[in-house]
Amino acid sequence: GSSGSEDEARPGTAAAAAAQKREERLRKFRELHMKRNEARKLNHQEVVEEDKRLKLPANWEAKKARLEWELKVEEKKKECAARGEDYERVKLLEISAEDAERWERKKKRKNPDLGFSDYAAAQLRQYQRLTRQIKPDLEQYEKLKEQYGEALYPTSDSLLHGTHVPSKEGVDRMVADLEKQIEKRDKYSRRRPYNDDADIDYINERNAKFNKKAERFYGKYTAEIKQNLERGTAV
């Protein structure tokens, strides 16, 4: 009688064990399925972020880091002003002597005046000098960031033409800067006495100045060609 009851219990026990094993496999399968979906979602997000990074300008990371640094500086200045402290003095107290010496050496090496080499180099130096004088309006930048969000940072698909209207203060600032440049150029552009015997190879005064500069730097290379053209013997 006992052996018969044991034989009847074994199929039930085996069925329960099989059901438990099947349930364990299904649970592992569901976990693997969830992990695969999560990995697929993370991969898609990473692809989207990488695509955004690739569409940004090459120097965007450096610009973003500089803007964040400038924001931190502004916050530090406000904290010092609230405590009645001088920001420059506080900043100097946080700089080590080694860093100060290194920055001083770097400052001396930065943008040395190498004199005139060509017009492209002179134009580049002027561009760098003018961009260093630009003071960003960080408060306006924060307002625009709140207003536009991610749309503030353009990509290759962004349509920028006609979307930005400069403020009156910005236009006035640009006009004042242009007038300052014109005034500075006039100081260095002193009028030379007119020579009646000199060759007239220009169409206006500005062209005459350009020709004089070209002759000063490249005249020794073109003297023979010019003489041949005047004699009519050039090939």
UniProtKB/TrEMBL annotation:
Lineage: Eukaryota, Metazoa, Chordata, Craniata, Vertebrata
UniProt subcellular location: Nucleus
GO aspect biological process, one term: mRNA splicing, via spliceosome
UniProt cross-references to Pfam families, sorted A to Z: SYF2 (PF08231)
Keyword field: mRNA processing, mRNA splicing, Nucleus, Spliceosome
Gene Ontology CC: catalytic step 2 spliceosome; post-mRNA release spliceosomal complex; Prp19 complex
Main location: nucleus
Protein's recorded name: Pre-mRNA-splicing factor SYF2
Domain of life (superkingdom): Eukaryota
Function: Involved in pre-mRNA splicing as component of the spliceosome.
Family: Belongs to the SYF2 family.
Assembly and oligomerization: May be part of a spliceosome complex.
Residue ranges of the region described as Disordered: 1-22
